[in-house]
């Protein structure tokens, strides 16, 4: 918070600078108090404690991040401020406050929160979700460090391993955007949002404000980087291991972008939405934005850029498992599909032998059970959230898309699917609706299934 405080002070926005400064002091006081209270009491951390830790972090940190939104000059209500902070921190990337009224320091804070949320998402996946069996064999996540390390040492070693590639790609994206004519502040905000697959653009007109096709190409490249495996990035940039290419899920993400891009380009062309070069560029940009759950639009916000069903399906699937992208993740859907065909094959050939391998990774029955459970819970939550939103007066189509988009942390996909109605929905949403959306965004980032741990009495008794 000191960085946006200093930035606000440099701009002469002294009320904003004071707000960030006070928020920083409150956060530092609470942090130091907790540190002193637990100092010297380090002991082995159980599985239930690591899950609880993840939920507390994702639920409590946004409250501290929301303090500047509640102070001058914005003076948002508690729920609205938390909504802004959670949306940024979970890389959902949607705002319920008119963007044209956002002071510059708050635009920077929103983008920075997305970038920090991106690295926290990776830490959550590598240190908590992967050991639960939702990402395949643990041999795939050796980046986590020594299995004998305590949990917080593992967090530290994982952060040290992931930051170089994450930071380097952000820096390269920033430099390239600046080089093609995007203003430095906007380049920084877009770099933060793109690598974290957050999709926040610091202008009301969205990316159409820049009218820069070169910038769109750069964003397409780095959206793919953000949605592909951080393990692959680490191996290529840090350890320079060529076997990083064995992680086929990243290749499948690229393949999904190309396939959806081709289909959307054809749809745009046959519906008369431009000449062939224009629809190719828009089709592939939209496809990459949806597959990676970033949610960018090359057109002004409020314009429908793809068929409703395509947006729902693609955002539901999401990107790679070890990435900042949201959604169910491509590996899990591929594994479910593979196992479904395997079971059908066993009906025809009861004594047949088939491999238990999907997207280049082996899996076991326990992993399959965990992922099936997650899939069922994901569908159940989509239905429940949509029904609650409908009960609160939201149109069914909008409620269903909002449910999928919030759980997949792809907020801008709502406006891409229903147009101007989606823009007005967030700007006029009441506290009850925002509360539901806040819970959905957090559930999406903690990968849903680890919540079952808190309700499992076996874990508590052990």
Topology record:
Layout lengths: L1 H10 L2 H25 L8 H19 L1 H4 L7 H12 L14 H26 L21 H29 L4 H12 L17 H15 L2 H10 L8 H23 L5 H16 L16 H10 L12 H19 L8 E2 L2 E2 L2 H27 L4 H12 L5 H6 L1 H9 L2 H15 L4 H5 L2 H5 L1
Antiparallel strand pairs: 1-2
Structural description of this entry:
The protein has 462 residues and is an all-alpha fold. It has helices at 2-11, 14-38, 47-65, 67-70, 78-89, 104-129, 151-179, 184-195, 213-227, 230-239, 248-270, 276-291, 308-317, 330-348, 365-391, 396-407, 413-418, 420-428, 431-445, 450-454, 457-461, and strands at 357-358, 361-362. A hairpin with a 2-residue loop joins strand 1 (357-358) and strand 2 (361-362). The longest helix is centred in the middle third of the chain and has 29 residues, at 151-179. The radius of gyration is 22 Å and the shape is globular. It starts with a helix and ends with a helix.
